[in-house]
Write a structure and sequence with these properties.
19% of the residues lie in helices and 23% in strands. The protein is built from 6 helices and 16 strands. The strands form 6 sheets. Strands 8-9-12-10 form a 4-stranded antiparallel sheet. Strands 1-7-11 form a 3-stranded mixed sheet. The longest helix has 15 residues. The termini are close together. The chain binds zinc ion (ZN). Zinc ion binds next to loops.
């Protein structure tokens, strides 16, 4: 499942808008395995208020494995949650909210505003995705800036040249939209199992030359929607693709794998 091809980047941006995550864990520079990395997972969890003014939780710049583990424990304590080091939270994890900006009021069933998640309309959520919870998590986006000054997207009364209208009004201006965070995954692709896992930061090292990023039947774990493991490719079964197409979904494309 993927976005359709667009004529240009500006057309892409006009249709899909942009989704931005502000609060995150930094990357890690691990002294045990010498890897420096940060992933791009999106948590369904809202950033706890205690970290929202803390610059340590806005930067991707890597910190040491000790410092990172301490930050994970700190967040877990704010949430009153258990925390397994480098499992509950991983380097590069993004918190909610996801701020949505767009030049125009979105009007398609699917939006592709970010390589790490896709977004669906209320209608698509109800018809297709609500029953996939478990394989996916569903989290509302937070509209931030919709429409552009002097643009034609907003009703004239709201586009009056007062910036506060642009900033404060959007939540009432667009239909609800939801991030679909795909949680299930296939087995490792052929040649794609990790060649080592760091005992401290759990970093998986791969042999990229051997890894074939191709979905084979035996990698399937029976879920209707899943990620091709070690990638961001979203794969759906033929039955699910048909259901989405039959619902008349707009701004989505399917390519055989
Ligand atoms: Zn490590």
């Amino acid at each position: 499942m993927q976005p359709p091809e667009y004529g240009s980047d500006s057309q892409n941006l006009a249709i899909n808008g942009n989704l931005e995550y502000v609060y995150r864990f930094p990357g890690v520079s691990c002294n045990a395995c010498n890897a420096t990395y940060g992933g791009s997972r999106i948590l369904a969890l809202e950033a706890p208020p205690q970290i929202q003014n803390d610059p340590r939780f806005r930067s991707r710049w890597p910190v040491s494995e000790q410092e990172h583990a301490a930050m994970q424990q700190e967040v877990a304590s704010y949430l009153d949650a258990d925390c397994a080091a480098f499992e509950t939270f991983k380097p590069g994890d993004n918190f909610q909210p996801a701020y949505y900006d767009s030049q125009a009021v979105p009007n398609t069933d699917f939006l592709w505003p970010n390589i790490r998640s896709f977004v669906v309309s209320e209608r698509m959520k109800r018809i297709v995705f609500d029953e996939l919870v478990g394989d996916v998590e569903i989290v509302p986006i937070r509209p931030r800036k919709i429409g552009k000054r002097n643009g034609t997207a907003l009703p004239a009364a709201l586009d009056s040249g007062h910036p506060e209208n642009e900033i404060h009004a959007p939540e009432t201006l667009i239909e609800p939209y939801y991030q679909i965070l795909v949680r299930s995954a296939s087995d490792y692709p052929k040649g794609g199992a990790p060649i080592s896992v760091c005992p401290v930061c759990k970093h998986e090292a791969f042999n990229d030359e051997k890894r074939e990023l191709v979905m084979h039947e035996e990698m399937w774990r029976g879920q209707p929607i899943f990620l091709l493991r070690t990638t961001l490719y979203v794969i759906v079964t033929e039955a699910l693709a048909e259901k989405i197409q039959k619902a008349g979904a707009t701004n989505v494309d399917f390519a055989p794998v």
